[in-house]
Amino acid sequence: MDYRLTKVVPVHGCSCKLPQYQLSRLLDNAGLSDNIDESVLAGPWENSSVVKIADDVAVLNTLDFFTPMVDEPEIQGRIAGSNVTSDIYALGVTNIVSVLSILAFPENMPDELAVGMLKGFGDFCREMGAPVVGGHTIRNPWPIIGGAATGVGDPDKIIYTRGSKAGDQLFLTKPLGIAPAMAAYRLRKEEEGKELLKDIQESLIENAVTEAIDGMISSNKPVAEAMQKVPVHAATDITGFGLTGHAGNMASLGNVDIVIDQLVVIRGTPVLAELFGYPLLTGESKETAGGMLISVAKENEDNLLDELDKRKVRHFKVGYVTDGKGIVKVLKNANVIEA
Amino acid sequence: METEKLDVKGKMCPMPVAFTKRKLESMTSSQLLEVVGEGELEFDNIQRWVKNNGHEIIDASKLGAEFKILIRKR
Q1: Which is the catalytic residue, given B13, B18, B58, B65?
Q2: Cα–Cα distance between A298 and A307 in angstroms, integer?
Q3: Structural domain boundaries, residue B55
Q4: What does the alpha-carbon distance between residue B38 and residue B65 come to, in Å, rounded to a whole number?
Q5: With an 8 Å Cβ cutoff, are B15 and A279 in contact?
Q6: What pLDDT is stored for residue A18 in this prediction?
Q7: Which is the most buried residue in A8, A183, A296, B74, by most CB within 10 A?
Q8: Interchain proximity A192–B15, CB inside 8 Å
Q9: What is the mean pLDDT of chain A?
Q10: Domain range for A219
Q11: Strands A256-265 and A144-153: what pairing?
């Protein structure tokens, strides 16, 4: 098929997310920065909104959609499903009661690609026990896939991005580097791109691309299950704002500082990031359907890692939390591990 | 010293930044590079990369969808 999903859009996956400063300005100007009611336990700067509807029931809502990362429609649908559901799992809630899909595509896009994206999205959500119960589909110059998810949880057990405490250890559950890996995926289909990549071993590129796609379609649900077993102070998934952007949110909402002393990246991505000029080794590179960043007290660290191990979730220590004023620092001599 | 030129119009992300980077690496310190391209995203991406990597933006302008960025290599 000639039609390539990634070729018809200028930005891919969570890279199309509006930068934080722009989003902040928009919300401020629209009067939507603050929570409107005391029943709203979490608003715009959390991964999902949380509204308490009874003493022991909170409803979580999230909406997430983006442009294609890959040309294979079913895989693209799965990536979108993983990204949408992750915003509920990030709060330690595993009960997603319904999902609505959002699909947009131009008139010249073959229907089978639209079907493939929807199928991948629906299959992924169903496998997570999160049924797709409806949705909305429009014509649009860019293909878009995603959805809105509704979760239900106990208000007292929800884990927020806020809540980190000095002395906490920080763990990440997927290596970084989606953007450079997927840029290589696109470039190696283009003559000019192949020329740009000519000095890099094909096996290294292949590994990076495979790991990146496998990572994106791996659900964060087992991470949420593990976080339900151990007292965790704060968590967020890592997507379009990159590690430093999301860790920065965690720091500012928790009124602490965060120090990143180790960057764990997909094998092969540092050389690709250097070639493309991506800020991977400063922790700023954008991620799509990334892992969870978890802030846990040192005394609960072993228990958390045991629970992650039981569920075969990879985990990497990336930093720690100190007293402070909401700043995230990536140490200049941070250890870089290619996993 | 002659101003080098680079046209990145119509190139898929991340080629505009990657080609700008590669071109600057082949130049000598203080030499000027004029990059012409298109799209808001690439206009921002190239300038961000240039600033983050210690080079100097002498001028950046847009005319319709196209842009021109003049860079001094450090």
Answers
A1: B13
A2: 15
A3: 4-72
A4: 5
A5: no
A6: 84
A7: A183
A8: yes
A9: 95
A10: 169-338
A11: unpaired
